[in-house]
Write a structure and sequence with these properties.
With 479 residues, the protein is α/β, with parallel strands linked by helices. It folds into two domains: 268 residues, 3-Layer(aba) Sandwich (Aldehyde Dehydrogenase, Chain A, domain 1), CATH 3.40.605; 187 residues, Aldehyde Dehydrogenase, Chain A, domain 2 (3-Layer(aba) Sandwich). The protein is built from 15 helices and 21 strands. A seven-stranded mixed sheet has the order 13-14-15-12-11-17-18, sandwiched between helices.
Length: 479
């Protein structure tokens, strides 16, 4: 049976190569994708730059809303197809992929709502001698060309978070999806075009050559660079940006959770297991480091292990699968090596700990890993949680804050004052009270701190990043 081909989505450009996309579960080929060379990148940048410089051809806000509204309708009509195909290419179980598609549709609608309601502001004038007889206000305009580089783990919703705001704010956008999961991106861009977006306003390209990708990102005409992926790559690319290019980087980190002695063990275990094992742990704010009071640590760890053992590991396109495959077999091998290192260093493995296949790994719960082990100090990006006991909560907070990463964190307690204490003292951009670290809705701020990222994500916040506020000052004797 032949597999579909997804061509390069750059107008008037011929692809010079292609690669095969495989399903991470069984490594079977599911599509081929055309690749861009240096010439294609140059053409895409020239096209986007010409669009941005021609202000008379900018899409009006009303036209952008019309396109996005139609795109959301098309996505809703194809929701099941989008979910199944996202599960196939990315490995996220079908039930969770359906949630991702629903979020992506809602994300497009959030772009519309923000565009309708988020405007400039009036600047006070007439308040001193220098500002007399003046009226001042700001108006939002697109920042310029947006270049978006995305990650594999949410292949549709991440693209919506990067491309949707660019279209909503009137920025020409060039998007490079993750090499492992380009198909959901290509489908979304095609839907935008079906909805009426001229091809030149959103160009999508797969790039295999690092030098070619760097050419795209570092061009001096790029107004805003949006990156979701590893810290190593993100910070490297930021260092190469042209002067004046603004950026947002979203990385990740080993999210900390502090569980007080009064927490409900059964309820807490169920929530933490979901937050740690969801999408095989391949989430930037996945539950990883759990600091539990010594009086409950062992019981909590065993309860999490029991929940993990009940989770079915396997084919992500099946309705009853809880944990799908790793995106690549080498990632499974890396995670297994980290687990074995923790065990050899004294950690107890209460569940999992052995590969199910070359591509799947079970929910794994470790108790008392060494403080200097990889599972205690680095983002594991796998279905592994590590439980460590504490007796002094201040020491637990200090340990949680000791790494060069800070993103979302959590605390479990019935004591409001204790919750507030932990909230104030944890180094994090968000602290969840009695919820897992991976909680997110798409309009809230989402920000990695320290080495975990730069800037603030979340659709309304991204839209503000992709705009400038241009000030107008009117002088009149009648004012």
């Amino acid at each position: 049976m032949s597999i579909p081909h997804f061509p390069l989505m750059v107008p008037d450009t011929r692809e010079t190569g292609q690669f095969e996309v495989v399903a991470p579960y069984d490594l079977s080929p599911i599509a081929t994708v055309g690749t861009a060379d240096s010439t294609a990148v140059a053409t895409a940048l020239d096209t986007a730059h010409a669009l941005f410089r021609n202000r008379d051809a900018w899409l009006s806000p009303a036209r952008r809303i019309e396109i996005l509204d139609r795109a959301a309708t098309i996505m809703a009509e194809r929701a099941e197809h989008l979910a199944v195909e996202a599960a196939r290419e990315g490995g996220k179980p079908l039930l969770d992929s359906r949630v991702e598609v629903a979020r992506a549709i809602d994300g497009v609608k959030i772009c519309i709502e923000t565009l309708r309601t988020d405007g400039g502001e009036e600047i006070p004038m007439g308040v001193n001698a220098a500002s007399q007889n003046r009226l001042a206000f700001t108006h939002r305009e697109p920042i310029g060309i947006v270049v978006a580089v995305s990650a594999f783990n949410h292949p549709l919703n991440l693209i919506v978070h990067q491309v949707g705001p660019a279209i909503a704010t009137g920025c020409p956008v060039i998007v490079k999806p993750a090499h492992d999961t380009p198909l959901s991106c290509m489908r979304f861009v095609q839907i935008l075009r079906e909805a009426g977006l001229p091809d030149e306003w959103c160009q999508a390209m797969a790039i295999e050559d690092l030098d070619v990708a760097t050419q795209l990102i570092t061009d001096e005409r790029v107004g805003f660079f949006s990156f979701i992926g590893s810290a190593k790559v993100g910070w490297m690319l930021r260092s190469k940006l042209a002067a004046g290019t603004r950026c947002a980087l979203e990385h990740g980190g080993p999210a900390p959770v502090i569980v007080a002695a009064d927490a409900d063990i059964k309820q807490t275990a169920a929530i933490l297991a979901k937050g740690g094992f969801y999408h095989a742990g391949q989430v930037c704010v996945s539950v990883q480091r759990i600091f539990a009071h010594a009086s409950i640590a062992e019981n909590l760890a065993h309860a999490i292990a029991a929940v993990g053992e009940s989770m079915k590991v396997g084919d992500p396109t099946q309705e009853d699968t809880d944990i799908g495959p790793f995106i690549r077999p080498k990632e499974l091998q890396r995670v297994h090596e980290w687990v074995l290192e923790a065990i050899s260093g004294g950690a107890q493995c209460l569940s999992g700990g052995e590969p199910v296949s070359d591509t799947c790994y079970p929910a794994t719960t470790l108790l008392h890993p060494a403080s200097d082990s990889k599972v205690s100090t680095l983002e594991i990006f796998g279905p592994v949680v590590a439980v460590t006991e504490y007796t002094d909560i201040d020491n637990a907070i200090e340990t949680a804050n000791s790494l060069p990463f800070a993103f979302q964190a959590a605390v479990y307690t019935r004591d409001l004052d204790l919750a507030m204490k932990v909230y104030r003292r944890l180094d994090a951009s968000a602290v969840m009270i009695n919820d897992f670290t991976a909680f997110r809705v798409d309009w809230m701020p989402f920000a990695g701190l320290r080495q975990s990222g730069m800037g603030v994500g979340g659709i309304p916040h991204t839209m503000r990043d992709m705009q400038i506020e241009k000030l107008m000052v009117i002088k009149s004797d009648e004012l």
